[in-house]
Amino acid sequence: MQRNHYFFLSTLAIALLGACHQGKQHDKKNKHEEDSIAMRQQYANSPVLDGKTAISHMVFDKGLEVQLVAAEPLVVAPVAMTFDQAGRMWVVEMTGFMPDTAGTGEDKPDGKIVILEDTNHDGVMDKRTVFLDSLVLPRAICLVENGVLVATPPQLWFIENDHDKPGKRTLVDDQYAAGGNVEHQPNGLLRAMDNWIYNAKSDKRYRKVGNKWLKEDTHFRGQWGITQDDQGRLYYNNNSENLLGDYFPPGLGGTNPLQQRAAGFDEKIVPDNRTYPLHPTPGVNRGYQKGTLDDSLRLVNFTAACGPLIYRGGLLPATYAGNAFVAEPSANLIKRNILSDSSFVAKGVQAYQGKEFLASDDERFRPVDLVTGPDGAIYIADMYRGILQHKTYLTEYLKNEIKMRKLTLPLNCGRIYRVIPAGSHPANVMLHPDSLCNQLLSSNGALRDKAQQLLIDHHEVSQAPRLRELLKDSQHPIAQRHALWTLEGLHQLNSEDLAFVWQQPDPSLKVQGLAALPSVLNSANVKAAVASLDTLSDNSYLAPVVAYVLPALSKADKAAAARLEDKMIKAYAPNRYVAAALVSNAANREAALLKQVTAWNPDTTLVLRKQLLAVLKNLDNKANAKKMEALRTSLPRGYKIFNTVCQTCHGKNGEGIASMAPPLNESNWVNGNKNAFISIVLFGLTGPVEVHGKVYKAPEINGDMPGIGASDEFNDTDIAEVLTFLRSAWNNKAGKITAADVQQVRKQSQGRQKPFTAGELPK
Fold first, then answer.
1. How much is the pTM?
2. Which of 23, 131, 167, 341 gives the lowest tally of CB atoms within 10 Å of its CB?
3. Cα distance between the two ends of the chain
4. Residue 645 confidence (pLDDT) above 80
5. How many beta carbons lie within 10 A of that of residue 2, not counting itself?
């Protein structure tokens, strides 16, 4: 009976994959179905493997070795990790994630922050200390001074470390992860080269100065995981995108709330999203949909990209230096990408076609976070679970896959691996206070980062002379950048340091100096700074960064900033990167700047003009504040679902998010035929879709719109209310949708699993 049940579901899935053919291909169809069924039956079971056995199921680059660093019961469901100065690993355990397909008990406070230690220095963790427990879905961690930042939705806490026990607690942000769901809430907490802490799935950054925590707006970035390169540029991804990132230092821009996306930020670094699993992967959420799996039932493109890492460890062969590694837990693999620079533009290609850096045929291998260790190895956090998809988006197809292969249990597993050169025995480096400046010369970027942070955390202002020596050491350009930002973090950087930097031939070092200028600019040095900026602005490589520091210059000398802005408008109005910086600088005066630009040059094709018009179009969102607050009161469930599910991809203001989803505000689909809108939300939407007269399709929008009709979380009344909310929000003006309307559409599409295409929907 069980076999017949499996046979039926397998045949159904194959039909949904489009495996059926007609006429003369009948025999070919039968053969294809038989092969597919055989493959699915071969992977009908998903056995639980111990950590060491799981390594034997991995295939990875020749010349490398994968070692087990920790496994259950020492670690359970790890989702994030970092190292302290003693080489100990701090791990976030999200044990409450999806205990079953209904998410039963997801709000149970069973998450932990644990410290793992290798006491006998053999490369294997052997001691576990629970630093913090009773957490609900903890998601990120960052070590700062004498404590640790911990993200537990919705709060961000700073907890002092009292001999590896939690001490005084300070609430840093009570809205850190407000709204969204576990897949779409801020995470990462990357302490970047510029001394600010950045996040994925967030437009906020944080910094501790004395006893105060600063919080500032920045660019919205990514979904799960964030990393940096040797220039301090940030990289991230969303679930369907291999690698996204910034061309410029992260602290620039992000200050104009009307600017949806600035050129040079959130760029597609590696547009190739193809994946090459080691085995059939039918257990992905939309595996029934044509194009999701290939003929061998293997995932075609990323669907759960996360945990990116720019490798800067210096331990692996030189060919891996600066490569970007991306985890894909739904396909049980880790991707390798090779990056390169052309001017300030970073681009990348996949390292291989037809294979991966590391792949496993163990379906429970779920790599979700990648970091470089103090030994230079790549460390892999493996949740080791069967269920990866959150309940909000779980389809009936995937529920069946989970049931058939008994993927719900166990829930008490978790592994951490490291990748090293085969046969090597790298030591876990401990950082000592008297050698921190020398560590800025290390070939291991993780050690350089940690040394910079410790110098700042310990307030080592006495090291300023040595740091200036490193700043002037042109033989070690990476150390120069760290020295500059360490001086900035110690509040020892001055205008003379920057004047020296701007006289150097290395343009990337000049960029760092420009990015650091706002922290030292004042009325005493502004005149000299203006002269330098005027000269630097003539260089097209540096011009976007000069434009991004205009707001800081304006605070010190408004007239000088206006003159430089006018110069840059006339020199770079067609340049999309400079234009984006000028728009960022024009917060609250966009209309005046547009008038100035038009008076100078009425050309309607100017990039700067187009960007200003796009920003002005968003201005009326502010006028909708009262309307949205009224809807929050009248449609509370709809408002909550919007903030939990919809805004994570379509944006809080309904204007869409680059690479993720098109606008909802004034959308023809939201305001149009209600049955079409209901169908999209119930079953999802795939393929090209036209909104505001613009066609959204791959590669601009790479992910499909998932339906929530199969979720146990929402009933038809809930869905009707969120649809009514959306049809009333912002500038939308459409009629109410009732639960009966939703039920009618369900009835009409009874038995449907796959998402609709735009052509299938009523106009």
1. 0.87
2. 23
3. 44
4. yes
5. 8
Do the domains 624-757 and 51-421 match in fold?
A: no
Region of residue 750 (phi > 0: left; psi between -120 and 50: alpha; otherwise: beta):
beta
State the pLDDT at residue 407: 94
Q: How many C-beta atoms surround the C-beta of residue 204 within 10 A?
A: 18
590-600 and 576-585 helices cross at what angle (nearest 10)? 130
Pairing of strands 684-686, 756-757: parallel
The continuous run of DSSP H or E covering 69 comes out as strand 64-71
CB atoms near residue 446 (< 10 Å): 23
Strands (E), 197-344: 197-200, 202-209, 212-221, 227-228, 234-236, 243-245, 267-270, 306-310, 324-328, 333-342
- How many Å apart are CA 376 and CA 584, to the nearest integer? 38
The CATH number that domain 51-421 falls under is 2.120.10.30
Question: Mean pLDDT across the stretch 209-230?
Answer: 97
Tell me the domain boundaries of the chain.
51-421, 624-757
How many C-beta neighbours within 10 Å does residue 298 have? 18
Distance CA 45, CA 407 (A): 9
Which pLDDT score is estimated for 701?
72
Model pLDDT, residue 702: 62
pLDDT digits (tens, 9 = 90+) for 406-416: 999 999 999 99
Average the pLDDT over 42-66 and give the result. 92
Tell me which residue of 660, 642, 686 sits closest to 201, measured CA to CA. Answer: 660
Model pLDDT for residues 652-700, shown as the tens digit of each residue: 888 888 777 899 999 999 999 999 999 999 998 988 888 888 888 876 6
Q: And the tokens for 497?
A: 């340091």
Task: Find, among 677, 681, 676, 664, the residue nearest to 729 by Cα.
Answer: 664
Average pLDDT, the chain: 91
335 has which bridge partners?
A: 326
The residue-averaged pLDDT of 84-94 equals 97
Contacts of 602 (CB under 8 A, 6+ apart): none
